[in-house]
Structure formats: C-alpha cells, structure tokens
Design brief:
The longest helix is centred in the middle third of the chain and has 17 residues. β3 and β4 form a beta hairpin. α6 packs antiparallel against α7. By secondary structure, this protein is an alpha+beta fold. It has a four-stranded mixed beta sheet with strand order 1-3-4-2, sandwiched between helices.
Length: 215
C-alpha cells in the first residue's frame, strides 16, 4: 500500500501511472533515490517525471520491462515489432547505471531548442553543434540529444523514445541507456505542428566536475 500511495502522489491518476501491479514491484525508497529531479524549480512536474522514468529504466531494465513497458504495450495495443522485441532484449542487459542528474546548463540548451522548434514547427536537431559549443569540454566530454513530438505525458515520451520505432540504429534508446551519461536537461514545450515537443539533452560530465551526488 505504501508503494501505491507514493506512486499516486508522485505520478497522478493516468491508468498506467496508478496501476497497482506496475508499482507493487518497485521499492518506494529506490524510486525516491532515482527521482533526482524532484523539487527542481525550473522543471515542471512532467519534466521531472521524464528524468525519473529514464532513471528507472537505467537502474533495472528487466523490472522496468516487466512493469511499465508491459503495461504500456498492453494499454496501447502495440504490435510486437522488431523494435519492441529488441528493446526487451536491451533492457534485460541494463542494470545499475548511474542515475541522470539534472544540470542547469543542459536544461537551458534543451529549453532553447524546444522553444524555437515549437514556435517554428521545426523537427530535428537544428544547429546542434552551435547550441552545444559553449559546453564542449567545460565540463562535458560527450553530449547527445533526444527529441520527441506529440507526447505530453512523461511515460509516453520515455517509452516511445526507448522503442524508437522506425529509427535505424535506435539512437534515442541508446542515449537513454548510455552508461557514460550522468547529466541531463529536459524541456517540454508547445509545438506549432505536433502540439507538444520534448527535448532531452544528455551529458557526460567529468567526475571531478560533478556538483551533485546522484545516490
């Protein structure tokens, strides 16, 4: 019951979010430790949840697959495509990755791109190198970006990017499950064409520069 109550308080009343079998398998203390974006004032609640769901998949891919992914597939009646099958395989190989910690500079880059894309109706990673120029090596040694369109709920954003249907090389999935990344910025903004767009920017911060302990 404690786990179910925590889930309801944290994630609202969407049927997938509040479905007790999904949450019964997750220790509430573990979930709290993975909710690294909790209370960050410049993120909306839904943006905070994007970080949480990614961290849950990174922490225990097998459990994430048997809870959230299974429920999502059933709720949305997804076909058993090659992309979905490969995701299950990848999640089974994923465990114990460091939780992503929100950083203000990555968030600023994500917000700028989400705002610009939303106002113009643009899709993709326009001016990627220019937008990340100031962050190169200071303090990040690697970076990447995911963009999602048409989804406003965190669980839809994260799982659709993990499935990465039709994306050759499943680059969005690889970014989320990349063991090198330890930092993140998230922005969900209105979009002229798709109503909503979400930009997730990842970074590999040099260990000596980490300003937060993620666990």
């Amino acid at each position: 019951m404690k786990c179910i109550v925590f889930a309801l308080l944290l994630l609202g009343t969407h049927c997938l979010h509040s479905q007790s079998p999904v949450w019964d398998s997750w220790d509430p203390d573990v979930v709290r430790s993975l909710h690294t974006a909790a209370g960050i004032g410049y993120l909306t609640e839904e943006e905070q949840k994007v970080v949480l769901f990614m961290n849950m998949a990174r922490h225990d891919g097998t459990l994430f697959a048997s809870t959230f992914l299974d429920a999502y597939v059933e709720e949305n009646k997804l076909e058993n495509s090659s992309y979905l099958r490969s995701l299950y395989k990848d999640l089974k190989k994923t465990s114990g990755l460091v939780p992503l910690v929100v950083e203000g500079d990555l968030t600023s880059v994500a917000q700028g791109h989400a705002d610009q894309s939303g106002r113009t109706g643009h899709v993709g990673h326009k001016n990627f190198d220019k937008r990340f120029e100031l962050l190169k090596g200071n303090p990040y040694t690697a970076w990447a970006e995911n963009c999602s369109y048409g989804h406003k709920d965190a669980v839809d954003i994260v799982i659709s990017l993990l499935i990465d249907e039709g994306i050759k090389g499943v680059g969005h999935r690889l970014n989320i499950l990349n063991e090198a990344f330890n930092s993140v910025g998230v922005a969900i903004y209105p979009h002229k064409t798709y109503k909503t767009n979400c930009v997730i920017d990842f970074g590999e911060m040099k260990r000596s520069d980490l300003n937060k302990v993620p666990y």
